[in-house]
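Listing S7. Sequence submitted for prediction.
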Amino acid sequence: MKVIVCGAGQVGSNIARYLASEGNEVTVVDQSPQLIQKIGETLDVQALVGFASHPDTLDQAGATDAEMIIAVTLSDEVNMIACQVAHSLFNVPTKIARVRAQSYLRPGFGKLFNRENIPIDVTISPEIEVARGIARRLQVPGAFDMIPLADGRVRVIGVLCDPSCPLLHTPLRQLTTLFPDLNIEVVAIVRNDRLIIPDTDDQMLAGDEVYFVAEASHVARAMAAFGHEEAEARRIVILGGGNIGSFLAEEIETHQPEVSVRIIEAELQRAEAVSQRLSRTVVLHGDALDPEILEEANVSEAETVVAVTNDDEANILASLLAKRHGCARAITLINRIGYSPLVATLGIDAVVNPRAITASTILQHVRRGRIRAAHSLRDGFAEIIEAEAMETASVLNTPLKDIKFPSGIIIGALVRDRQVIIPRPSTVIRPKDRVVLLAAAGHVKKVEKMFAVRYDYI
């Protein structure tokens, strides 16, 4: 597939890396010579200096025969015009744009993005996606990640195995014996920054980050098996009243009316605007690093603090201060990749990476075959994929033990007629099954082919 990525920043370079690693023909456009030089030296892509919205730049980037344009520059307007030019002059079939200004995305202006006006097929708002990602984590206290799939019937949970985890040093094959009624499947272990696709003899060790697939109704029991029985937060303090913080508060007000929320915002004008926008949330004006403000927000009584200011260092320090004041759990937004390995040792419970969340959202619209959802794990170590098995899929009607899956692919669950099936060696995939699986980096193309629809079937 030939793809043009407009913008060589963190999100653009991440998307380009994913696509190039899978053999796609990728051209990256950015007006910064420094960013283009860096991406050209580190990735197997064409790198072009130029304005992404200019017709001659897109022409030079190969828009004439491109199948997709992904516009993720820092300017909403450049992203929108790039998609318009790609549509009007070059007839590019699929157009994805990052749009951050919320005025463009208000429900009343829904007609703005269509083929007759601004022809963008998918608009991505990073702030909204990050807020939703945090809201998902809040639903499963003790987990550092949670991905809902198959219309909410399946959850993929990321959990840290601390030294008190009851499942340490237990071969995975024994989990079924120990918990015969528990529908879970361990699909990945990250140990010392190395991805392990486990087999039945592997064991979990203290410090491992484990991803498991579970039926939604079994998540609480699964978390208890891992030693996490924390109650869902009923008092939350959000540090930072920007778009992410205010969207998160809106999500909680809408879907969790029993939860009380307080926001600490340093800028007075912004604090006043957020206060007017929200109905039940208490908004405090002050510095999240000020102990008196933390006390006024009653952070010692909160189960969770969520730090989402624009400053990584402030988020880390404020999270640690909140926990020192007695808050049970800290979820921290961090943009810089280099900080991520450090924060777990400091006592921060979950890290939110906006770049990874935005990239995952875009990937869902890039994947081919009958791929319904795709989520990147650990900055590209692997992807969690939900695929639909069609009549011509190559994996049908054969017991899983007889299918020679590549070593980097593991099946986590099937959903058939609303029933969740945790796979066993004798399990058979049937037409129209939803298949939840993990694919290590470099194996996603194989998944797309496994679930592709043949032209002769169409």
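Caption to Listing S7: primary sequence and predicted structure tokens for the chain studied. The chain has a mean pLDDT of 90. The longest strand covers residues 184-191.
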